[in-house]
Amino acid sequence: MAELTLDTLHRILVRCAGESDTDGMGENMLDMSFQDLGYDSLALMEVAAVIEREYGVALSDEVVATVPTPRALLELVNEASPHAA
User: Does pTM surpass 0.70?
Assistant: First the structure.
């Protein structure tokens, strides 16, 4: 399975939590906090459930609650992926 990319993460965020102010931001959103991007902890829990189903990476509620940015989430998922090379 391919690694989780920013584009895919953005699509998952929109699917789980709806639109935010992230459209057109591209890589500028990598280091912004999820809160500043308009995503709360409930949205991130839903994102974590999708990531587990689609990427096989289970993230605890505690981990999800402390992941500060999209970059940190991408790194966490891609390092933990059972398909990582």
Answer: yes
